[in-house]
Write a structure and sequence with these properties.
The protein is α+β, with helices and mostly antiparallel strands and about 100 residues long. It has 4 helices and 4 strands. The chain has a 4-stranded mixed beta sheet with strand order 2-1-3-4. Strand 3 and strand 4 form a beta hairpin. The longest helix has 15 residues.
Length: about 100
Amino acid sequence: MKIDFFDPEMCCSTGVCGTSPDPELIRVGEMVEKLKTDGHTVARHMLSRDSAAFTSNKDVYETMLKQGLTVLPIVTVDGEIRSMGRYPQMDELFAARES
């Protein structure tokens, strides 16, 4: 399974830094590492650092044009959008795979 995270702008590639990191970003970071350990291809993209990733996925790009940056994060599974405006739970990603 190939999973791409199109993240909103953050202070660093994971958003987990500083003296009081966002617990949701910690959860997402752990989920990303678990997915990689389980053999999935996972990539995180930030607009300012990897804009080509945003424009190369037509659905992501058009969604951003229509809804603006507030739609981020967008998460795709095998190129298809599976969640917008929030990070999914692990079971949601696997449920997406089975559908």
